[in-house]
Write a structure and sequence with these properties.
The chain is an all-alpha fold. Helices cover 50% and strands 0% of the residues.
Amino acid sequence: MPHTQQIHAGDPAYASPVIRPPSPASSVGTAYGPDDTSLSDSGLNQDVFERKWIANLRLDEPKHDEVHNLKDPLIICPSDPQEQKLLFEEILHGFRQRVQQLEEDEIFQQAVINGSQIGKEQLPSADNVENLIQNMMGTSIGTEASHIQDGPWNRRNTTHAISTSSSMRTAATKGRLGKT
């Protein structure tokens, strides 16, 4: 029975769903390709074949970590100074790796336990704009601030700014009218 999908004019046009029969519950009917076993392997019995591939895959050999763990934990100090130095460097390298691993683990555990701290940091707040600018710019603005003249952007001395602006207006008005 074919599935029909009703499309309404107000609905967005989506692709029709894929309707197919369910997959079989078992893989009894699965078809595999032809056997790719080489002629030399096909002549071997099962036991010899398994030993050959265990040797090829090195499944019987210990892993690097297992070999490393087989080392004797007791340190025997060699008599040769060069061998002593090599042993010292090897031990020091192992300590540094272990400390680095522990530091990384600690950072990860703190992140998991505390969660993200983004947005929880308290941002600096100040009502004084000059303090904010000085904090952002460093101390260089504080040394140059004494050399800056008062102007409309810097209203520290308001009486000077008012008198300067009124005298500028008077001079501008006289210049427009052609009076000197």
